[in-house]
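Task 17 of the worksheet. Students: predict the tertiary structure of the chain below and write it out as structure tokens. Keep your answer in the requested format; marks are given for formatting as well as content.
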Amino acid sequence: MTAPLTPPPPPNERPSYQGGPVPQPVGAHAVGAAPGGSHDPYGTHGEQDGPGMLTELRQAALTAVAVALSGVLLGVLWWKLAPSVPLVGEVVNDSWVVYLKDSEGEQAIGVDGTFTLLALAFGALSGVVVFLLRRRGGVPLVVALGVGGLLGSLLAWRLGVWLGPAQDVIAHAKDVGKGVTFPAPLKLGAKGALLAWSLAALVVHLGLTGLFGPRDPEPDPWPAPGQYPSAPYGDKSA
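Model answer:
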């Protein structure tokens, strides 16, 4: 007499798992396992985290100082390249009066324009240099670039004024004599030019970072159905 055969399971039910190692899904080595068997949930051993916050702040501070100190060169170039505004001194009723020799001249606009163009060039150059030195970028570095550009512009402005002609135009007119043309002191009429350096540096640096900066690695897609290897289940014999 033979034993009754065990009926097969319904089509929608799977046999229960009865032991044995769980198979590792395809691609698991890139998601949850590190080489050598150690577990690394990020798969990068911490390399993608970049430098610590303290290191980033230190690098940002050095960047801001270096950019600000380069304002010395901007101030010297502004002093050398800015057009001269001619003044003339006259004596009226025993009093010295100073006026523009060419009332319709555009030298004053040229002084502001020279500073603005130089600041834009310095900003673009500093943005390129900072990107080449540290491609990873970061918020502290971007803030330092903007702050350093503003401080560099302020330093260049005050240095150019100090290097330029004397600020006391009456005393200068008396020194050169009546009716003699002399240059006016350097003056930055458009104070908005002080922001040109920072804006140019930020635009160039962010543009280069967006185009050529490092990209975050894309996570591996989940394995499609049917990619799991077959695993031994319980004995199906009667």
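Marker's comment: Residues 26-49 have pLDDT under 50 and may be disordered. The first strand starts at residue 86 and ends at 92.
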